[in-house]
């Protein structure tokens, strides 16, 4: 299993180095976001290819699930960012030290993402390459159900946000309908839930430590690049009418009933 993990890390590192070279040509480090989902497909496929363990029904199920999830995520981010240039976060990093940014981005963005992909991917490693894993049982069914719930939340949430943002009339309004009525981040909740499903697949294979990779993804989503970053950006912006009221009555992450507030602010519906 160690050899499979090392091979998986090497494969995603190669993917990120290739993406880094493309970013130098395009002057757009945002390309790394487009391959984030693909990196898990590469990791899982490499693990399956080099592992000494025969591909089981569970491994096949996980490979299909991570491929569907990764392709959708990469396609969505590519479509969303198309024609918008480099993400402001990366542009700010470039502006601070332009002379050394190319080499620094290799380490602080691309290699870092490769390492995180491999660490989170330990959930996939555990589910695919654990020796003497039991055959499919009820816990695999639960894992698949959790994965499906997460995938639906992520996909529907992204679609609702895209449709809302495409209407110029909503430029200063807050999306608080559909799944966004029950959580401010249905897409991020869905992403974390998908990985909870992968973690359960790992437990079903007899490798509880696979939950650590899934938990790491949850921390990254909630505390680092997802919920926390979006909330901070929205709070600093005064463009969204009724956003403070939306925050008061809507759960940040886990879906829940709408809370009543005394505020009469326009919520953007």
Could you give a quick summary of the protein structure above?
The chain has helices spanning 2-26, 31-34, 36-50, 57-81, 88-96, 101-120, 122-129, 138-165, 186-204, 210-224, 227-236, 243-249.
How would you characterize the overall build of this protein?
With 269 residues, the protein is mostly helical. The protein has helices at residues 2-26, 31-34, 36-50, 57-81, 88-96, 101-120, 122-129, 138-165, 186-204, 210-224, 227-236, 243-249. Helix 1 runs antiparallel to helix 3 (36-50), helix 7 (122-129) runs antiparallel to helix 10 and helix 8 runs antiparallel to helix 9. The longest helix has 28 residues, at 138-165. The protein starts with a helix and ends in a 20-residue tail after the last helix.
């Amino acid at each position: 299993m160690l050899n499979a993990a090392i091979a998986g890390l090497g494969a995603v590192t190669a993917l990120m180095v290739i993406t880094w070279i493309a970013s130098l040509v395009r002057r757009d480090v945002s390309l790394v976001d487009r391959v984030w989902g693909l990196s898990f497909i590469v990791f899982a496929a490499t693990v399956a290819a080099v592992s000494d363990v025969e591909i089981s029904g569970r491994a096949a199920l996980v490979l299909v699930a991570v491929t569907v999830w990764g392709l959708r995520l990469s396609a969505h981010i590519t479509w969303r960012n198309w024609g918008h240039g480099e993400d402001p976060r990366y542009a700010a990093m470039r502006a601070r030290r332009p002379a050394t940014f190319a080499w620094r981005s290799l380490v602080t963005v691309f290699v870092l993402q490769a390492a995180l992909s491999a660490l989170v991917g330990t959930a996939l490693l555990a589910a695919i390459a654990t020796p003497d894993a039991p055959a499919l049982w009820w816990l695999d069914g639960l894992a698949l159900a959790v994965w499906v719930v997460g995938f639906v939340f992520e996909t529907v949430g992204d679609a609702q946000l895209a449709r809302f943002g495409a209407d110029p009339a909503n430029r200063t309004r807050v999306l608080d309908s559909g799944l966004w009525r029950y959580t401010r981040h249905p897409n991020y909740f869905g992403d974390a839930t998908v990985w909870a499903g992968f973690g359960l697949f790992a437990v079903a294979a007899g490798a509880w430590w696979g939950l650590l990779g899934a938990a790491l993804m949850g921390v990254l989503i909630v505390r680092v690049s997802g919920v926390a970053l979006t909330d901070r950006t929205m709070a600093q912006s005064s463009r969204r009418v009724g956003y403070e009221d939306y925050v008061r009555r809507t759960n940040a992450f886990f879906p829940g009933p709408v809370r009543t507030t005394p505020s009469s602010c326009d919520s953007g519906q």
